Amino acid sequence: MEELLRIEDVYVKFKTERATVHALNGISLKIHKGESLGLVGETGAGKTTTALAILKLLADTADFQGNITYKGIDVYKMKEHELLDMRGGKISMIFQNPLTALNPVFSVGEQIAMVLRTHKGMNKREAMLRAGELLELVGIPKFRVADYPSQFSGGMRQRVGIAAGLACNPELLIADEPTTALDVTIQAQILEIMKSLQMEYKTSLLMITHNLGIISELCEKVAVMYAGRIIEYGTVAEVFTNPLHPYTQGLLGALPGLDDEKERLTAIPGNIADPRQLPEGCRFHPRCERCMDCCKNSQPPMTKISENHSVECYAKGGKLYE
Ligand code: SF4
């Protein structure tokens, strides 16, 4: 499969007057054509920073190190016009809150048309006609093309966001918690739309979420993030049936099951590591029940356990990896 995106050893920190925030601490990932990858982790794990780093949309105060290439071209060496061509044209993003992502003073049709005029060179009339078709694709009647975001419900606004994201038939769609701001029944509808469109257009997907159910529904592969690092990676089938990292085991153990007769769900003790003062060694060690001396002193390497499964942890049945 053709490689679309490669992230190599990326570090991002933000310097403020009081502290330095270590948001990403050496992440590496690849996404191939047609592949769907879920990026999962608690709030503050670095998921959104990863998405913004891919599109070179980090704040000016961010200190970026590492390499991100899109089809072999270094994103951080692209010229401005190449970046504009990539953002929205080749890689699109659906944001968490459709209310803040859409501009309240333009109709939804104008906002979708703007993407088409910028990237496809369409004239205004062609772009508005296509915007109507795209709205129909996500289940909104095309006559609503002239309506404003305030005239839509939350779920419909997110459908507009998806229509704008897919307007140029991007090769990679980054969806940053696209259903978090919506109620459960609307979430299911939005996921269904995304799934069918992804299958139809063979778009690669980077799904950012803290919801493991969404990952199992939409993705083939999953990367689990903790404190700005990928700590477990593999196919959804392998990672969810045989989680190896204590953090992934904790996340899955905290899920309620229809067949379980548990009185209390298992919780992961403690809080996510403070990105201003990350612990030495394994970032998870203050919360880990299997912590050993070596875990406190050195960062465990990412170890390949099988063809489709890697983990960053010293312990497996209490033994150190070679
Ligand atoms: Fe726990 Fe050690 Fe594995 Fe970190 S490396 S998750 S502290 S066992």
From TrEMBL:
<keyword id="KW-1003">Cell membrane</keyword>
<dbReference type="GO" id="GO:0005524">
    <property type="term" value="F:ATP binding"/>
</dbReference>
<dbReference type="GO" id="GO:0015833">
    <property type="term" value="P:peptide transport"/>
</dbReference>
<keyword id="KW-0067">ATP-binding</keyword>
<keyword id="KW-0813">Transport</keyword>
<dbReference type="InterPro" id="IPR013563">
    <property type="entry name" value="Oligopep_ABC_C"/>
</dbReference>
<keyword id="KW-0547">Nucleotide-binding</keyword>
<keyword id="KW-0997">Cell inner membrane</keyword>
<dbReference type="Pfam" id="PF00005">
    <property type="entry name" value="ABC_tran"/>
</dbReference>
<protein>
    <submittedName>
        <fullName>ATP-binding cassette domain-containing protein</fullName>
    </submittedName>
</protein>
<dbReference type="Pfam" id="PF08352">
    <property type="entry name" value="oligo_HPY"/>
</dbReference>
<dbReference type="InterPro" id="IPR003593">
    <property type="entry name" value="AAA+_ATPase"/>
</dbReference>
<dbReference type="InterPro" id="IPR017871">
    <property type="entry name" value="ABC_transporter-like_CS"/>
</dbReference>
<keyword id="KW-1278">Translocase</keyword>
<comment type="similarity">
    <text>Belongs to the ABC transporter superfamily.</text>
</comment>
<dbReference type="GO" id="GO:0016887">
    <property type="term" value="F:ATP hydrolysis activity"/>
</dbReference>
<feature type="domain" description="ABC transporter">
    <location>
        <begin position="5"/>
        <end position="252"/>
    </location>
</feature>
<dbReference type="InterPro" id="IPR003439">
    <property type="entry name" value="ABC_transporter-like_ATP-bd"/>
</dbReference>
<keyword id="KW-0472">Membrane</keyword>
<dbReference type="InterPro" id="IPR027417">
    <property type="entry name" value="P-loop_NTPase"/>
</dbReference>
<dbReference type="GO" id="GO:0005886">
    <property type="term" value="C:plasma membrane"/>
</dbReference>
<dbReference type="InterPro" id="IPR050388">
    <property type="entry name" value="ABC_Ni/Peptide_Import"/>
</dbReference>
